[in-house]
Amino acid sequence: MRLVLLGPPGSGKGTQAARLKDYLQVPHISTGDLLRAEVAAGSPLGLQAKEVMARGELVSDDILLGMLEDRFSRDDTKAGFILDGYPRNLVQAAALSELLARLGQKFDFAVQLEVPTELLVERIAGRAQAEGRADDNPESVRKRLQVYTDQTAPVIDFYRQQGELTVVDGVGSLDEVFTRITEALAPAKEVG
Ligand code: ADP
């Protein structure tokens, strides 16, 4: 199964992706986690990305595509993947389509998690206390939500037009949302 999870910051993509990984037996690829690992390692890429991430802006498309190509060169992605945090704009959506075409992999679904903005702000504030992420301060959160509306929301239309979008209500308990996602994916899972 080859999936993209779409949704604003705080919509629960990361949490649901971690569960889906066990359910579908495919790797969870979070571009946010990959970038945070580079920052933590102090690599040249991490040094470049650090400030951009802290401001809540997008790291360059070139860096992201390089990271993704690198990750997709590993064998575990042959069985499929759950992509979380990518694509975040239309350039990235096109780059992903090209990459998959080049690898001869057929894309299955983009799952959009729908959550109202008030709830996002509340959830991120809770996470900020629990995890202390550098980009969970109010200013950066506002910026990330704005970037989502301006740049990532059009990606939803991109997948809708291709007939590859499935929309899931992201309000409810983790279990409820997980069940909704697996129900939405059930037909594709049976096919293979
Ligand atoms: P969230 O969705 O909660 O904002 P992520 O962990 O997905 O968190 O991303 C954190 C930050 O990492 C983003 O604000 C951005 O700076 C950077 N990032 C992650 N994925 C991408 C991407 N596909 N393109 C550009 N920047 C990205």
TrEMBL record:
Residues reported in the UniProt entry to bind AMP: T31, R36, E57, L58, V59, G85, Y86, P87, R88, Q92, R133, R144
Annotated positions binding ATP: G10, S11, G12, K13, G14, T15, R127, G172
Keyword field contains Membrane: no
Entry's EC annotation: 2.7.4.3
Record localization: Cytoplasm
NMP as annotated region, ranges: 30-59
GO MF annotation list: AMP kinase activity
Keyword Membrane listed: no
Domain of life, source organism: Bacteria
InterPro entries on file: Adenylat/UMP-CMP_kin, Adenylat_kinase_CS, P-loop_NTPase
EC top class, as a word: transferase
Keywords (A to Z) from UniProt: ATP-binding, Cytoplasm, Kinase, Nucleotide biosynthesis, Nucleotide-binding, Transferase
Pathway info: Purine metabolism; AMP biosynthesis via salvage pathway; AMP from ADP: step 1/1
Reactions mediated catalytically: AMP + ATP = 2 ADP
Major location (coarse): cytoplasm
Binding partners and assembly: Monomer.
General function of this protein: Catalyzes the reversible transfer of the terminal phosphate group between ATP and AMP. Plays an important role in cellular energy homeostasis and in adenine nucleotide metabolism.
Domain notes: Consists of three domains, a large central CORE domain and two small peripheral domains, NMPbind and LID, which undergo movements during catalysis. The LID domain closes over the site of phosphoryl transfer upon ATP binding. Assembling and dissambling the active center during each catalytic cycle provides an effective means to prevent ATP hydrolysis.
UniProt family annotation: Belongs to the adenylate kinase family.
HAMAP family: Adenylate_kinase_Adk
Protein name listed in UniProt: Adenylate kinase
